[in-house]
Amino acid sequence: MQNPNENHVIGVDFGSDSVRCLIVRTADGREIASAVVAYPRWKAGLYCDPAGNRYRQHPLDYVESLERCVREALAACPPEVAASVRGISFDTTASTPALVDRTGTPLALRPEFAEHPDAMFVLWKDHTALEEADAINERARRRTPDYTLYSGGTYSCEWAWAKMLHCLKHAPELLGTACSWVEHGDWMCGLLVGDTTPERLARSRCMAGHKAMWHESWGGLPAEEFLEGIDPLFAVFRGRLYGQTVTGGTPIGGLCAEWASRLGLPEGIAVGMGAIDCHAGAVGAGITPGTLVKVIGTSTCDIAVAEYDAIGDRAVHGICGQVDGSVLPGLVGFEAGQSAFGDIYAWLRRLLAWPLQRLGGDPELEERILGALTDEAMRLPLTDEDPVALDWHNGRRTPDADLRARGAIDGLTLATSAPAIFKALVEATAFGSRAINERLVEQGIPVERIVAIGGIARKSPFVMQTLADVMGLPIRVLDSDQACALGAAIFAAAAAGVYPTIAAAQQAMCPGFSAEYRPDPDRHAIYDRLYERYKRLGAAQRGE
Fold this sequence. Notes:
This protein is an alpha+beta fold. The chain folds into two domains: 4-290, Nucleotidyltransferase, domain 5 (2-Layer Sandwich); 342-479 and 514-541, ATPase, nucleotide binding domain (Nucleotidyltransferase, domain 5), CATH 3.30.420. The chain contains 19 helices and 19 strands. It has helices spanning 40-43, 59-75, 130-140, 160-170, 184-193, 205-211, 224-230, 257-263, 277-284, 308-311, 342-358, 363-367, 369-377, 418-442, 455-459, 461-471, 483-495, 502-509, 521-541; strands at 8-14, 18-25, 31-38, 56-57, 85-92, 97-100, 121-122, 180-183, 251-254, 270-276, 291-296, 300-306, 321-324, 332-338, 388-390, 408-410, 449-453, 475-478, 513-517. The strands form five sheets. Strands 13-14-12-11-17-18-19 form a seven-stranded mixed β-sheet, with helices on both faces. The protein has a six-stranded mixed β-sheet with strand order 3-2-1-5-10-9. Strands 4-7 form a two-stranded antiparallel ribbon. The protein starts with 7 loop residues before the first strand and ends with a helix.
């Protein structure tokens, strides 16, 4: 094992809008430098159609932004740091897949498809594949085993098979070139070791298990006959998929000469398998059995792990998946989450800002809307007669996925104010979090403590206190703005052999907590009753 006092690692966090590079000292997890670079084509709104729920990203956005980001972070360090970097690893959004050719090159990097949206990476929040997801679910429920068993019982339109089928169906001109597909995170790893060939590319257990129905009990991915029974177009992938997967922190090769030169790093340093961003964030937050890590931002991801003996053969219904080793090797990982959280607050801000924009108002006033709503909402009394809202503005991810679900507000009167509506929406996002927590506990996954990471966790005491009051549990906030990138750095430290295990790297490199929110018993009692109204409203909205 190498001396951690002399080593550094790099964690790279590919988010929805930008990439962040974090350079970390392995001895104690100290953040030496970081840089953030926005994806230029995405920032310009290219290749997307929000009205049609289409969100695509060009692979050049990832490649160019990675190179610039790493070099900017290194430039902020003492010159000797670059030479002491021992490993690099990634986290990415998921499922964010793309069709590739025989060499593993995303089709959008070929000249003939350079501007073709269906040849690009399909961002996690793209909802164009609803019909394809329906077809997958319908066929899965007619066979044994049901391939959605460990995906919560429902396959989502946000995941790889549905998205890739949608692209093949709606762009037949790609059929002669498409040979396989790849998740963004797996492609980045292959790119850095110099081999993206589909048959040889290392595949993340985290991404495959949670997004592609990979499970060891049925030999890996769903059988070819199952896929081609959904649609014969799946035959284009025959023989070019994969059976084996690797867990986060596994070394998959050394940094190739080309990318060592492009990034300004030593050739041959370890490239470690990464994970989905929220799973890496849970690692950065020091997750252990009994801990629920909530990644709170525009949407949420809830991550838990459990011992094998605590789960046995049970499959937890209605979540986004349970996968052996998806978070930490040797433990079963669980993912749940909400399709919208902070996005709901942003929706209200846009709604209220519309007259200002139309009448030529001050843009600075628009940015202050949520702050003003928060200040007043904190002063409002909490009563059983308050308006109650649903947090399904972007569908419901968990429990029990239904991406056609819609938001609602009940109990409005002519006296209802804008701050009261904002308060109801904050409470709705907290109720949605509570529903996830209850599902996990009902299914035997212990939740003894909650750790929150993400922008809202760090920036909004009102939201976090509401969350604690609704859930009836204390919530600690990690003292880091970069938990996901830190998790990727921990993977890199394990891959490089600086530490023998991820757990050992966590013990040395994870930070403490910046805040703790404890529930108010009196408010929790009122929220118990409002939560019952929330559940009744949801049942009515779904016609139950």
